[in-house]
Amino acid sequence: GALLLWLAWRSWHAVLAEQAAQVQATPGLGSSFAATFALTLSNPATILSFIAIFGTMGARQSAGGLSPWPLVAGVLLGSALWWLFLSAAVARLRHRLDLRARRWVGRISALLLAGFALWQWAGLIPRD
C-alpha cells in the first residue's frame, strides 16, 4: 500500500515533457522483441499467475487431463495481440494528446493508484 501511495504521489507531481524525445536510431525487430519479453517477465503478478495456471494444468495432465499446448498458444496469441493493440493505440493517439490531456491522464492514474493503496489498507481492518 505504501509503495502504491508513493507511486501515486510521484505520478501526480510528475513534470511532463513539452515534446517527445528524438530517437536517434530505431531498434530492430529482435531487440524490440527482447525488450518486450523482458518487460513482460519482470512483472511478478504475471509470473505468479502463470505458475499457478500451469501448475494446475500439470496436475490435471498427470491425472489424464488436458494438454497444456492450447493454453500456451492462447497465452502467446493473447500477449501478442495485446501488445499489438497497445502499440497501435499509442502510435495513433500520441499526437492528439496535448500537455493538458496528458496531465489529466497522469492525475487519473495517480488517483487510481491511491485508491488501490487505500483499498489494500482497508483490507487490514478487522471485520466482525
Annotation field: number of helices: 5
Q: Note the overall shape.
A: flat
Taking Cα atoms only, what radius of gyration do you get, to the nearest Å? 20 Å
Q: Span from first to last CA?
A: 23 Å
Class by alpha and beta content: mainly alpha
The helix content, as a percent range, equals: over 70%
Portion in strands: under 5%
The overall average pLDDT, rounded, is 82
- Characterize the biggest β-sheet: none
Q: Which series of helices and strands comes N to C?
A: HHHHH
Q: Tell how many strands the DSSP assignment holds.
A: 0
Poorly predicted ranges (pLDDT <50, ≥5 residues)? none
Label this structure with key terms:
128 residues, mainly alpha
Structural overview:
With 128 residues, this protein is mostly helical. Helices cover 72% and strands 0% of the residues. The protein contains 5 helices and no strands. The chain has helices at residues 2-12, 29-41, 44-62, 69-93, 99-122. It is flat and about 60 Å long. The model has no long low-confidence stretch (mean pLDDT 82).
In terms of topology, how is this protein built?
Elements: H1 2-12, H2 29-41, H3 44-62, H4 69-93, H5 99-122
Helix pairs in contact: 1-5
